[in-house]
Structures are given as C-alpha cells and as structure tokens.
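FORM 7B: Structural annotation worksheet

SECTION A. Query
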Amino acid sequence: MARKGKRRKTFLSKKKYLELILQFLDSHPLGAFSAKTITKKLGFRDKPSKGIIKELLVQLNQQGKVRQLRNGNYTSGRKLEYLEGVVDFVNPRFCYVVIPQMDEDVWVRAADMNGAMDGDLVKVAIHKTQRHGKRPEGVIEEILERGRQEFVGKIELSDRWAFVIPDHRKMFQDIFIPPGKTLEAQSRDKVVVRITEWPTGRNQNPTGEVIRILGPAGENEAEIHSIMAEFDLPFEFPERILAASAKIRDTISQPEISKRRDFRNVTTFTIDPEDAKDFDDALSLRSLENGNYEVGVHIADVTHYLKPNSALDQEALDRGTSVYLVDRTIPMLPERLSNELCSLRPKEDKLTFSAVFEVDRNARVKHQWFGRTIIHSDRRFTYEEAQERIDAVDGDYGKELTILNELALKLRVNRFRRGAINFETTEVKFKLDPQGKPLAVIPKIRKDAHKLIEEFMLLANRKVAEFVFHRKKGKNKDTFVYRIHDYPDPEKLTAFSVFARKFGHELEVREQAIAKSLNKLIDDIEGKPEQDVLQQLAIRTMAKAKYTTEAKGHFGLAFDHYAHFTSPIRRYPDVMVHRLLAHYLNDGDSAEKDEYEPLCQHSSDREKRAADAERASIKYKQVEFMQGMNDEEFKGIVSGVTEWGIYVELVKTKCEGMVRLSDLKDDYYQFDEENFRVIGQRTKNTFTLGDMVTVVVKKTDIDRRTIDLQMV
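SECTION B. Predicted structure
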C-alpha cells in the first residue's frame, strides 16, 4: 500500500491492478471496503483507475476471489471459519461474539459488526490469526436473530423529529422516532420503543415507534417500570389468568384430607422476613420416645392447585420465578394463589408437600419420609422475633426454636466439614419513603434464625434429590430436575491464587483441596481490608449454578445431589420437582428427559433475568441515594479495574462508582490485566484491587444508573 500522500502512477496493466487489489484485501482479511475506499487506499486518484478497479472488483466477486457484502463493500475471498454466537457489545469501539464451542470470545470491531446489536445471534467469520491481543478476530456476516426488539429510554422531542436515548448500557445509538410515532410522549418521558427498521451500517441509527409511556424520567414509578420493561418483565397478569385463579375453590374436602398425612396437631410455625406476604415453608417439631426428634419441612402444595398445561401453569412457566425489585415483587403466581390459597398462613388448614425427618441429637438423619400432608401453622414468626426467642431461650415456642437452632448449627458444621464453601456476602436493602425515595442504605445481617431456616431447607432439598437418584439402581436413573454447581474453572482458580498471594494468602487449587483451602482463605481474610475484594473475586471464579436433568453434584454446598423443592410459590423448578417426586412416590416410570431439559434451560435463563433486574433496581436506588452528595468525600475500596476505569465500592453506603482513567490527570494510566491493576507510565503509581482510596462524587446519572467518582 502506498504511503499517505503518495499517488500511484496511472496506466498500469489490468494484471497489476488485480495483484494490488488482492494484495490489499488479503492483508486486511477482516476488513470490508467500498470500491472508492479501496481505490483511495491503493493511492489512486485518477478517473481511469477508479473505473478499472470498480470493474475488476465485480469480476473478482463473480470468480469468488473476493466477496461483496450486503452493504456493497468488498472483503477478502480467503476462506474463513464461520460459527454462530451471541453478541456482547462491550463499548462503542468493539464487541465480542460469545461462541459456546470456543474457549475464547471472538473480537469484532464496530465497523465490522454489520448492524448487529448486543444480544443478537449472529454468524461470524473468524480469522485464524490474532491481531488484537490474544483473542481471535472476526467479521459479523449475518444477523440470524435479533436479541431484542424493544428498548427503554428517555425521549427528546423537537418540532421535526424525536430520538429515544436508550437506558440499555450496551446500546450505543439513539433511536430515531418518525413524526406521528411518539404516542404523544413529552420530552424527557421514559418510554418503551419498538424497533421498526434496523441499521445496516456503523453510523446509521435504528428507527422505532413508541409503544408505551412510562412517565417523567427520574420519578420512581417511571424508573422502576423502565427496569421492568428493559428486562421484559410483566407489568400485570392477563385478565384470563386472574379469572382462572379466582375460580379455584378455597375449601379442602374430607376425601382430600384422608389421602394425606395429618400434621394439624403437631407444633408448626413459619419464619419469614417482616414484609413477607407469601409463606411457602413451615417447620414442625415433636420429641419422640426414643429421644430423637421428628422435624417436618412442610412446603406449600402448589401443584395441587396448579394443573399441568393449564393457563395458570403456562403463565407460571413463562415467568419462571418471582422477581424482587427494591420496592415491589413481580410474582410468579397470582395473588389468589401466592398470598392466599398456597400461603401457609397461621391458624388456617393448609395443603402441603412435606419432607419429614427423624434426627438424633447430633442432627444425623435416622429415617425420612416424603409425601403430601395437611398442616395448621400455630404461629407466624419474623426473623427478628424468632431470633429474640433463640437468644433468650424464652417466649412462646422458645423451647422448640432453641432445639431447632441447635440441630441447625450441627447440620451447618457437618456441611462445612464435608467441604461446603462458606461464602457470606453482604447484601443491602433500602429504607424508602412513601414515594419510593431512598432514605438509608441498610446492610442485611444474617443471624441464627436465618441460618436455621436455611439449613433445614438445604436438608430437604438434598434428601429429595438423593431419594430420586437412588430410587432406581444401575446407570439409567429416573429423570429429575437437579440444581447443579460445577467445579471452578482451573485457569480462573490459578489466576485468583496468584492474586491472593499478593496479599499474603496461599490457595491450594487441586480439585481435592480447593474447598478446604477456600474456606481457610475466607476465615483468614475476615475483618481485613481485602476481605470484600477477595471474596468477590473468589465468587467470580465459581461456575454458575443452573438447573438440569444431569445428575451432577453441587460444588458450593458439597452435595452429591441437590434439587430445589422448598419454594414452589416463587420458583417454577420447584413445581417440576414436586410433580416428579409425587409421580415417583406413586411408582411411576421415568419421565422423558427431552421434555424436561428445555424447561431447565428456560428456568436458568429466567433466573438470570430476575437477578439482573434485581441488581439494576438496587443500582438505581444507590445512584438516587448518592444524588446531591457531589464533592463529599468517601472512603472506598477498589473493587474492579478495567481498561477504561477503576471501580470503587464506598465503605459507608456500599454503593459502587467508577473513576475514569481519563480523569486521572497526574499521569497516563494503563490497564495491567494480569495483575488486576492500573499503573502510571511515568510515576509508576498503581491502583490495585483491594486498595483503600478516598474519592468524591463527581456525577450521578439515573438514566445510565452510574456514579462517576474522582480520586482525592
């Protein structure tokens, strides 16, 4: 290629033009160029050359030596590998294409994305050489399926046009709204817009139409509704679903009672958060003559009311899970079921599906029974009320709570002895005023009452899974819905161990020793400045838990087999577990694996959607809480480092913001990925994960849910 400013001589032979064109395109195998650009890049300016090059490109395309893309640009005809993957649009300059069968994501520059957006399923041409760091590079050839059709954002109006500025962090283009397609929204309203025309080039904007007005930007209802729309969460139940739930009878017939084991005369109570409205689990306790205890874990019998393939069942399956935003719950089931018929409210007979255990005083299970039951809860405890009785060993049902707590503590010790990982992350909740404005950020504190419930739910979930797995001998096991958690990725573990060593902590990464070593690390860092950072990094090394019919174990809990049995009001996998367990208790044949595996994948996807939406709502309230605190100094811990900035978690409020590298004026800082730090080129100043820093709030952005910080 000619040096900039130098023009080639004209009157070359066609053969020479052909050589130059092929040489240029082969040296840019991932680029796509117009005939005009190729002519310019080759250094020609005269009209004859322009005509010849255009003619030869058409000829080369017909011969298959170059390829013409949909937008008219030309690229090398060199044979590339084509694979399908999902776009992760990291920033305006480039994206990654995540391909399941590849260990590394494929790097694609924005100019080669061919109009693809974040979340799109695409066909990507992969170039074997790696010019951008260590990752393979590619060009998006075709968009197979759009990841989403609707976006949420703030509308800006003028006399002749309108644009929607998307809230979605990975949508980097505003959406053009033609006249008459605004639904009479006002400027700065939050709206939902549906794309009607997608861009085909880098600098084109998508076109759309407003389909819902959420309200003025910045108001609580508008912002929470924005999050709901962003994650495609339902705003309400369809009328036909509410009508179907209203028709369900609330009486329990005598024939139904006669088919169940009766626990109505056994001491039973629920323990839930103060603001809970649905109670899907209860505990019963009675002493046996042999000195052991009978502990019943009673779970709302949702499947008695939720018939397979009914409209109610299909709606619950589609939702997959209840979603808990900061100021509201988006339930999986209508209120008639979740808060009334299925909720184990005190002083009412309720239908349940139970796991009943005879345990000795060391919490060892001597006998177990699973089946349908009827209970009558004596008392509804909040966690705080239950904790008061455990601490004082007094009050109503204080004796029963104390016994259950002692058993739970032993179950917990045994679980960690077997190799369970003791992750205790700090979660936050908000104190809100009537308008939803955050008044305070409050860390959630887990005490014995929380852990008591947790241990007996874990016991029931584990024993149900083990029962089904061992019901049939040999390799061909009954189909079941398991909750699995794979071993951590060895490479991630090794990288984490290297980082932990910088703080003076050793981590054994052998598979047989990792659980014990991680627990020792967690104990060692408790109360130290690096605790939060190392614990968060340790969690990131873990595989993601998911639902599957594969009978694998749960690494984090150190269980060979595990299922979700205890929350069918709010999780659809628990509904499937109840149905399958009931089927096998009646000596049914194995269910079809091909029927349940897609349902497991759907449930895992819905769980991720719920978690992402919940995080977004927390982030929104954190940003709202930090508004008006500009120039106030805060102590913080470096919680993440990237090529564009340093993430800092504020100690006082647990809110996270970012210091942009471009705002560090004392030096030019570069990202050191291997050492989890950024380093100044001249001064060698470093900012590393776990560093304590002092920052001020520079800017808050409700729309993007971001907090910009400045180093002091």
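SECTION C. Observations
The radius of gyration is 30 Å. The domain at 150-217 is CATH 2.40.50.700 (OB fold (Dihydrolipoamide Acetyltransferase, E2P)).

SECTION D. Sign-off
Analyst initials: ____
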